[in-house]
Each structure stands twice: as structure tokens, then as C-alpha cells.
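fold-stage: in
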Amino acid sequence: MNWLASDAAMVRRLIVKDWQVYQKQLAGFIGGLLFALGLVGMGTPLMSAAGGLLLLVLLIVVGTFAVGSLVMAERKQQTQPFVMSLPVTPMDVFWGKLLANLTIYMVPFLLVTGGLLGLILATPGPDGAVPWVVLIALFVLVNFIVSLCVAIAVDSEGWNAFAMLALMTLIGPFIYWVTWMDGIREHLRGDAVVWSPQVLGLVGGELAVMAIAILAAGWAHARKASFL
């Protein structure tokens, strides 16, 4: 099985094509995320909670919309015959879709994560929330990458919708779980940033899940000799 793209230039074209399709919607989402960061930056409990919730919702929506419009919608619109006419292999399409969606999603993801960490470290509030924010941000990224890989590897729209909904329902319980976990709870309102073994273990687990999802989707595409 060949895991590499056969034509890097074609992969770049696929990435640029998806970026051009999604850039207007992305600009709208970024505007909403900046507004939500502004609410968090006000510092009042009510505004911070509202801003944090809006950030979480928008990050989920931007990922879901990207996967839906750039992967699932293209499949529904029967664009495969056109793709088959291009000089591309299944792995070219896999890497094009994966990297395009990751590039698009990482823009708002890094904006939100960097913005929140900057606000925490630059304001008088407790810096101990930094690992907590990192864990939740990575979990949202895990949700997106797993949903994306399922959408790329599985043709069934029903299974894709089920995977997205199932993953989204895990976010709330995960936030509650890490908030009260030993090694996190006692440092959450402290002034020091503590990377406890529990935090590092969860970070490693989240990174491992992302890697496994990408490898599994790549393996499914690498088995294909052609689109037929």
C-alpha cells in the first residue's frame, strides 16, 4: 500500500480549491469568534461564561460545517465522476481533503486557543486554568479530526451524522470530568501553571486518538487501487 500522494502539486490544488470555497464562511465564523473572545475579555462572570460558551459552540459549528460542505456535500452532489476524470489517486484525494480541512479548521482553532491562553496569562485571574483550557481545546480538535476522518473514509451519510452527534455529546461530560479530576481540580484556581501527570497523560491520549484516526482513514484509502 502506498500512503503517499502521487502528485503534490495536485494535492495543493485540491487544498486551494477547498480553501476558496470555504473562505467567506470562515471569515464570518472568525468574526463571531472574535466577538466571543471580547466577551470573555470583559472579565465579568456572566460575560466570560457567555463568551466561553459561544466560543465552544462556534468551534464545533465551524468544524461540522467544514466537514459537511467540503466532504459530505461533495459526495452527495455526485462530484466523484469529475474527480475520477482527474489525474489523481485515492491517496491524493485523501491528503487533499485532510490537509484542506485541517488548514481551514486550524485558523479558528488557533485563534480561540491562543486568545484564551493569552487572556488567562495577561489578566490578573488564576493562571492555573491554562492546562484545563489546553485539554478542552485538544478534545474539541479530537472531535473534529475523528469526524473528518470518518467522513473521508465512510460513504454513508447516516454513519457520518451519527459519528458527529456522538462525538459532540461527549464534550460536555469531558469538560465536567476534567474539571473535577485529581491533578487538575486543585490547581485550577491557582496562580501556577501545573502540568501534572494526569494532564500530560490526557494530552498524550488525545494526540494518540488523532493520530490513530488519521492512520485508520489513510489505511482505508491506501487499500484502494482506484476510485472504481
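fold-stage: in (second)
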Amino acid sequence: MNYVLLYEVTDRFLSKGVCSYFKPNEIHLEKFNPNDSTLKQSRETIQSQLLETAKSQAWQSMLGFSQVFNLLVEAKKPLIGHNLFTDLLFMYKQFYQPLPANLKRFKSEMQRLFPSVYDTKYISYEINSMLSDKSQRWTSNGLISLYEWLRDHKHITHLLLYMPKLKLMDDLSVSNAKLHTGGWDSFYAGFCFVHLIYMLASLKHALPTIVKPFTLTNQLACVRRLENKINLIRAEVNHLNLAGPEPESRRPDMILVQTRSGRRIRVDQVAEMFAEFGSVDVRYRSQNSALVAVGNHICARISLEKLRNHPVYKVSTFHSRKDFIVNAVIKLGLLSSLLGGITLTYLIIVKSKL
């Protein structure tokens, strides 16, 4: 607004001997003699400088978070977040350019923008699997739950000895925190990252008879293998690798549910039927069938066992068309080999008789 006012006053009245300048919440006008060429030139120079300053300030105010994004790109410092896949997509689209049509291009551009990214949710999964004592494991790795567990660390004190202490400024309090606001979520994610990488160093290097502090270099070296691996929820793979090929799927096969009578299937009933086995996703497949994606292999095994003889639904492991074709090709190949072997044996026998 300041720039617009200043521009209008300058454009309309400077030639008539009126210049302007700003003070906080005020605009001041000053008259001068336009016939004095020296004075006029001086006022024009000053006014031009004021306009450039106001224009720059207006531009900066309109950029908003883009300024932070550009600083992050320029700094090339590690980017840390919790379950941040959608955050990366949002930043890319809002502050860089439209999302690309394919994943390969997205990964390439993300590596150029942010060559080092860490996801504390993915890191927490990896560390939890390394803890042999179940009492040391956290039961939930949502951001606030993980933060509280690491903050109290009653069961993992030995893994966080000499851990640097993180304190908020005096006028801030976690009790007044607001979840899912940028500042607080950033603090929580950073807090979790610092604790998690120290735990990794402890798990990798600590000896039963030796307790020692770990340098930041030690900690970053331990977490390097988890760099650029972004947690994915309810996907074919459990994470996205921004810097390399995708991991092999650890998810169980989908489950095919069909009505035994051939009647139209109801997805809500299928979802309700599987609810006791854990979190599932159900997708309509055809008039009388649906696909169910389960969270883990235990859930898949138990649900298949318990629902195998269901009176209304036929429940089985789903084999996609691709799997069917591959299996068919393998079987045909084996059959061809067998027939070829029989033919070759026959020719050898006949030839030997001749």
C-alpha cells in the first residue's frame, strides 16, 4: 500500500513541486519550488530512491513463505520433518513449480533442491525395530507421542546419556504449544531428530563397559543410511527413496473378497468384517468383488484363516493379472521344455536304432 501511494503522489505531483515520504503509519507531503532546477533534481533523486525502497518492501511482503523456501534451497542444509511426504509435495507445487507428471522427475528435482532430507517418522520405525527390549519401544510414533516419549525417556536413559539438552526460551512453554502450527511442529520434529540420531549412535557404537558422548559427526554418520527416505502410509512400499531406486515391497498381498452368491458386494460390510483385524483399506473391484489392503502380514494371515469359511463371502489372496500372466508364461515355458525334452529323447532313441 505504501508503494502505491508513493507512486501515485510522485507520478501526479512531483512535477508540480510536491514530494512525499513515509513515517510509521503516516505519509508526509512536502512542497518545494519546481522552478529551482537544482532543488527539483535533488528531490527527484530522493523520490526515486524512496520508490525503489518501497517497491522492494512491497515485493518482499508479497513473497511470504517463498523467501523461506528460497533460503532453504540456497542453504542446502539438511531438511528435517515428520511424515513429510505431503509437505514436500505442497512446497514443490506452491513455491517452485507444478508437480511433474512422473515420479522420476519429481525425485530428480527434489534432489537438486534439497539434497539431504530426513523423515523422523521413518527413522523412528527403523530404531524401534532395533530395540530388543519391548519396554524400550514406543507404541505410537505420531509426532507429539514420539516427542513425549523421547522427552521423558524413562526406559531408554542409557541410550541418551550425554545427550545435549534442548531448552525453550524463557517466555515459551510446551504447555502452550499448538499442534500442527509451523513453529511448534518444527520444534517437535527437530527435537525428535536430535534424540533419534543420538540413539542410533548409541545402538551402533556403545559398549557394555564403556559410556561415552558421541560427536555430531558420529551421529550424522550413523543416520546417513536413512537419508532421503520418506515415510509412506498405506502404499505398496513403506518409504520413498528420493536418492535412488524404490525399495522392494514389504506389504502383504491384497485380499480378494467375493460374494458366494454372486450378489452385489457392499464395501461397507467388507470393511466392518475386517475391522477386528486392524486398519484396512477396501476398494470396489467389480459388482461382486472387492480388494482389501491390510497393514501387515500378521493381519493378513489371521484374517484369511478366520474368514476362510465365511458363509457369505469367499476370501482369498489376490493374484493380479500380471502375476497370472507371469505364472502362465513360467508354466508354458516348463511345458515347452518338457515337450522339447521328450521330443529330443525320442529322436535320440530312433536315431540310435537306425
